[in-house]
Design a protein that fits this description.
Length: 218
């Protein structure tokens, strides 16, 4: 049986920690036989230390993330057959800058931003950027449920700051089609109807700018 064709050639699924973006990307890539780009965050050797001592380890953890994301995207997005098959990614490179703004002091961030601007200049932009929005309380519950030891001390304030960083970025980039999808209580792993309704929303064509919708659950 032939795979279905996904309506977007390159889509990035974003969201806060615990929003469910990686799981959704796996489901989409399986259904549409798309090339899957997943962030390799578990390979960051500074990450466990960062959660224990963020001020000390913020710069190396963000620098490692940036260089690894750049290396991965540079390798994958340069493959000519990639866009023939379609791309579904669970992150957008700008995520690098947003997390850095939240975690670095002003002096560190200015240096980091200069490096980021150099690395970001050559990347193609996705046809659609989807941000899966959940309430902070739901994110904390999901983080606890998945049980990664180094994430268990993440605070609600930290998640709220990350969310605000995304929203601030969206307001300043009207040239990119951005869909903010409120997915409170949605479970696209166990509820097929939730997944289908989400798929309907992200399959539509969107003009550049911010589009905010609430996923209507059955």
């Amino acid at each position: 049986m032939a795979k279905q064709i996904f309506p977007h050639q390159y889509i990035a699924i974003e969201g806060n920690i615990g929003a469910g973006k990686t799981t959704l990307c796996h489901q989409l890539a399986e259904q549409f036989d798309s090339r899957l780009i997943l962030e390799q965050f578990t390979d960051n050797p500074f990450l466990p230390f960062f959660y224990d001592s963020p001020e000390r380890y913020a710069f190396p953890v963000e620098l490692f993330f940036m260089t690894e994301r750049h290396k991965q995207l540079q390798e994958l997005l340069s493959q000519h057959d990639l866009f023939q098959k379609g791309i579904i990614a669970d992150y957008f490179f700008v995520k690098t800058l947003l997390f850095a703004r939240n975690n670095l002091n002003d002096q560190e961030y200015r240096l980091f931003q200069r490096l980021f601007n150099i690395l970001n200049a050559s990347f193609p932009k996705p046809e659609l950027l989807v941000y899966l929005h959940r309430p902070v309380e739901e994110l904390l519950s999901n983080i606890k449920r998945r049980g990664r030891s180094y994430e268990q001390d993440i605070s609600g304030d930290y998640l709220l700051n990350i969310q605000n960083a995304y929203f601030d970025y969206f307001k300043t980039n009207p040239q990119l089609p951005i869909l903010i999808l409120d997915v409170e209580d949605a479970d696209w792993i166990n509820e097929a109807e939730h997944y289908q309704r989400l798929l309907t929303e992200i399959s539509l064509d969107y003009e550049p700018g911010i589009h905010r919708k609430r996923l209507v659950l059955p």
